Give the backbone structure.
Amino acid sequence: MKVLIISGGNLGDVEYIKKNFLDWDYIICADGGAKHLEKLDVIPNILVGDFDSISPKLLQKYKDMGIAIKTYPKEKDWTDTHIAVDIAIEKGAKWVYIIGALGSRWDHSYANIMLLYRLESRGIRAKILHSHNTIMMSNDVLEIEGHIGQIVSLIPFSQDVLVEYTQGLAYPLHNETLTLDFPLGISNILEEEKAVVKIKNGWLIGVLTKD
């Protein structure tokens, strides 16, 4: 099952999102993500959150449409996107992509990157999708697809990440350890339409940038 989570952050180019990222089996809208639904021309299967980020009128609209609503208290240990991720896990998702995960709240943006680990560590393939950045994470293999010349950055998520090898990148890595105090993996370049990064140890973030 492919699950799309719509969060309340920035989408970037809406037309790009609509063209590339809207083929899903199940759609979960997390609280403020509801403000994106009309622009994306999608109807979610469920809305979740404390609903402090959307108007009562908009929430009522989706209630009247018969959309499932799960309301949570404002004071809680989970972000609304975290709740959506856990619902995707409960649904048996094999793929989870999150849009609206990045924005002006860097704490929320980073928390959403942490949720990639929550998913990937359970064997669920996950990405954060934005018209300018695609973010993924793995402790095994990263497969990064894009256009030749696009920027790819490799960022350690754990203390030391041993990269066994890379293929399809302008600046290859071979048995190279990426550490938290030296951003060696920033601004590599795709030389092929698909790059492969084989990870021997640790968790690695891959970022494909579209300027």
